[in-house]
Design a protein that fits this description.
The chain is α/β, with parallel strands linked by helices. The chain has one domain: Phosphoenolpyruvate-binding domains (TIM Barrel, Alpha-Beta Barrel). It contains ten helices and seven strands. Strands 1-2-3-4-5-6-7 form a seven-stranded parallel beta sheet, with helices on one face. The longest helix is centred in the last third of the chain and has 20 residues, at 210-229.
Amino acid sequence: MPNPWDLGSARLLVSLGFPALATTSSGFAWSLGRRDNRVTLEEALAHLRSISRGVPVPVNADFEGGFATAPEAVGANVAAATATGIAGLSIEDSTGDVSSPLYDSTLSVERIAAARRAIDASGTGVLLTGRSEGFIVGRPDLGETIRRLTAYAEAGADCLYAPGLRTAADIATVVQAVAPKPLNVLVNSDFATVAELTEIGVRRISVGGALALVAWTGFLQAAREIAEKGTFTGLAAGVPFGAINGSFGSE
């Protein structure tokens, strides 16, 4: 389930045969010239409408922390997201506060429960993913991560996700802890393959902002060569114009 950052990248991924996509908060924010977690709710909702209505495959929304703290506000925002055409969304438990990077566990569970109620009331069947961010915000405690994920499952999350897990042992432990519900694993480097993760029992894989980073890397390398050397050899590495242009049909 790769992560496009705009409609063009989404359509190219569909053309490669991927059966589902997921948005990326970082990739989208960078496309607007912002840092991650700096887009507004309305901008995020418009982005979700663009992607979900522009491709023929299911789209999972990186809905950050629900764009609110209070459970009631998270629920209201989730209700708005369900009307965009998405097939699923995730809610994080990170606060953005370096000194206290995770919401209190009780509040975190209440936020997931509020999202569950909003989805059920919408009648859309949107799949809810509960995310625990400890491993990427400086709190890499496997036991606490499992406690949070299992609590989110009990509160109504259909899928669980702990970005930052990297070892086969840790991933297998979490797969077993949240079973029979599926675990999503973030792969943003070459630490594992699809086959290896499948063998462990992982049932969903996403890449977050990694594809956007790869695209920005190529862009910056070619642009720096022009700026610093006045040469253009990096441009020769580009995909042929027709290969991209032709992928978008007659629109």
